[in-house]
Amino acid sequence: MKVKIVTAIFNGLYGTELGGRPGRNNHYRYSLKSLMKMTDADFVCYTSPDEIDDLSVFFKTQIDNHQLTLKPYDLRNFKYSDRINKIKDVESTKTSDRCIEIQYSKFIWLSNEIEDLTHDYVFWFDGGLSHNGLIPNKYLNKVADNFYEQHYDSILFNNKFLQNLINHCGEKIQIVAKNNVQHFWSQTVPQKYYSDYCMELHIIGGFFGGKIEKMRKFCVLFFSYLELLLDNEDRLYAEENIMTLTYYIVNKCLTHFILIYGGTRMRK
Predict the structure, then answer these.
(1) For residue range 234-248, what is the model confidence (pLDDT) as tens digits?
(2) Could you give the domains of the chain?
(3) Helices 25-35 and 52-62: crossing angle, nearest 10°?
């Protein structure tokens, strides 16, 4: 059973026309290093052409394996750039901690990697997913000498976790949903795009994936709704909003979900 995990690291986007979280360089690097303790998976990380050499040096000195492939990607010039730029408020984006280009590109990157037919499962993991804002201290490496490992190195991500994830997926894909009624998180896309309108759940885009042929179908549906929104709306919707719409359309045939009721920490 071959597994591919797709992720991305783009640093220094805060204050630019792309937007993004500030000061995340070592967070992303040490978090991805922690995720790569799932050694049974092959990792592909998309990054800026300007960052790829530095990242390559970092990971060569930090890990003793060949499971990571780094791929350059230009966030300023890709399939949806022109349509995004027609809608985007650049000045507000400069102070935003979310990059819409990364959000939409997740599905471009996944689609690219799905074309590699040598894998059975494909997952998206945010590069910074392993961190102390999400994971309780008892699962973090608090005895490490390195400050970043204390905050971003977790024992949770390992081959047992990966195998359990695959077992839970079965023939479908796995997504995480937040209860959007008891613990409201976000509005969704306009009601007119739903066949049966519902916003009880809000999909979380930090990690998801599963059987490769089912992920291919999910990506196709995501793109169809993304293009519909880009062509007909005057605002940019987060990838999680579009994923939520997609989930409600296909949930019975494609997906399993894990429900999070509230808070930001993982439950055992």
Answers:
(1) 999 999 999 999 998
(2) 3-260 (3.90.550)
(3) 50
